[in-house]
Amino acid sequence: MRAIWALCVYCLLSGTAIAAKGDNTPHQADSRVLFVNPGFAQESFWHDVDLYAQAAADALGLQLEIIHGKRDRLLTRQELVERLQQSPTPDFVILVNEKGAGLALLESITSPQIKVTFALNDLSSNDKRLVSNIPDWSKRLLPGVFPDNYHIGFVSAQDLFVKGRGQPGDFLLISGDKTTPASNNREAGATSFIMQNENTSLAQRVHGDWSESIAYEQTKILLNRHDNVRYLWTANDHMAFGAIKAIEEANIPIGSDIFVGTINTSNQVLNALAQGEVSSLAGGHFTAVGLSLVKIHHYLHNEPWPQRTKYNLFQPVLYPSEFYNILKDKDWQRIDFRKIDIQQNPIDPFVPKSEELK
């Protein structure tokens, strides 16, 4: 009897503790999440981010709202401020530190009831130190989901070299911008591979600002400036499209005299991979925001928020392959988001529902 009584008391106290925690945390069914997307709604990568995140929200019973900053950091902050002046107030906000705008966005969120997490691009070390001195943020700022961009920069450059049959030649790197962490880390990884390989050298690195038109103009100049280019690496697919256009206009055979490698998984770049215009491709990090929603789901069920922030979300994309087909179909409704193990690294963001396994 004494043991049973002790068990009853334990259960009562445990239930009280969970209820107390729940008092400060919204219930799953009415939890609102605001994702501040810094890109355009129909831009290939950011559109994929939205689609995967919305599928996760629908499956997990979360109310997801998305606003878009159209790659303008001032507009992004303005959109966020205006939204927070309206009702209902979101319970969680997911931010992206695109072009160094993360701290300004964070400072715009003044309500003590809103919890915040970052995805894709983390705050800089200096910004983290500033935030760490504000006690309120130690409770409200939750660890984010960030892909290992350095690793994929290295691996993608290495794979491009392999696809070029390992023959000696120069690399051209078209990076993104100078302030976004993903851009800097991808570029650093690619540069590291080049510096470690005695059969290659870096002809030049430029920043294409993620833009097809800018990369096109840059590639025209770079091909005239450097006559030993065999490998052209870009930090995203849009810049690859611009580079390919310039290479074709220069009548340089792609896939024999010069090889193009890039990152992202838009339909256009998947088609380019299948057609041989792109020799090396990697992607999968568009799942980061959806995985943040998986974290929120577990948090609302009184599970500890994972402290890990860096995940290997990228995979090389081969054609043909099962991964290629998954990316091409974009049938995210087939994913069992409740079974994604967010404690793992790498995470499998494409766990199929049980009926899909039969």
Tell me what you see in this structure.
With 358 residues, this protein is of the alpha/beta class. The chain has two domains: 10-147 and 286-310, Response regulator (Rossmann fold), CATH 3.40.50.2300; 149-283, 3-Layer(aba) Sandwich (Rossmann fold). The protein has helices spanning 2-23, 44-60, 73-84, 102-107, 125-132, 135-140, 149-163, 181-196, 212-225, 237-249, 267-275, 288-300, 322-329, 354-357, and strands at residues 32-37, 63-68, 92-95, 115-119, 141-147, 169-175, 200-207, 229-234, 259-263, 280-283, 310-311, 315-316. It has a six-stranded parallel beta sheet, sandwiched between helices. Strands 7-6-8-9-10-12 form a six-stranded mixed beta sheet, sandwiched between helices. Strand 1, helix 2 and strand 2 (63-68) form a beta-alpha-beta unit. Helix 7 crosses helix 8.
Can you lay out the helices and strands and say which pair or pack?
Elements: H1 2-23, E1 32-37, H2 44-60, E2 63-68, H3 73-84, E3 92-95, H4 102-107, E4 115-119, H5 125-132, H6 135-140, E5 141-147, H7 149-163, E6 169-175, H8 181-196, E7 200-207, H9 212-225, E8 229-234, H10 237-249, E9 259-263, H11 267-275, E10 280-283, H12 288-300, E11 310-311, E12 315-316, H13 322-329, H14 354-357
Parallel strand pairs: 1-2, 1-3, 3-4, 4-5, 5-11, 6-7, 6-8, 8-9, 9-10
Antiparallel strand pairs: 10-12
Unreliable residue stretches: 1-23
Tally of extended strands? 12
Structure class: alpha/beta
* Rounded average pLDDT: 92
Largest sheet: 6 strands, parallel
User: How far apart are the first and last residues' alpha carbons, in Å?
Assistant: 48 Å
| Overall geometric form | globular
- The CATH topology annotation of the largest domain reads as Rossmann fold
* Radius of gyration, whole Å: 23 Å
The CATH C-level class name of the largest domain: Alpha Beta
Family: Belongs to the bacterial solute-binding protein 2 family.
Pfam family, one: Peripla_BP_4
Keywords: Signal
Subcellular location: Cell envelope
